[in-house]
Recover the amino acids of this structure.
C-alpha cells in the first residue's frame, strides 16, 4: 500500500469475474499500489 492509498484509499479499477467453487467473485486491482480485492459477484 502506498502512502497515497493509506490517506485517500485505493483507486480500484474494473476487474474480472472468477469462479471459486460455487461462488462468483469480482477481482479488482488498485491502479496505484497493485493491491487486489475480491468482492461477491453474481451467483449462477
Amino acid at each position: 500500500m502506498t502512502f497515497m492509498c493509506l490517506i485517500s484509499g485505493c483507486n480500484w479499477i474494473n476487474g474480472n469475474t472468477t469462479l471459486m467453487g460455487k461462488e462468483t467473485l469480482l477481482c479488482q486491482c488498485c491502479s496505484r499500489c497493485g493491491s487486489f480485492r475480491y468482492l461477491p459477484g453474481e451467483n449462477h
User: Anything to note?
Assistant: Strands lie at 12-20, 23-30, 36-40. The radius of gyration is 12 Å. The first strand starts at residue 12 and ends at 20.
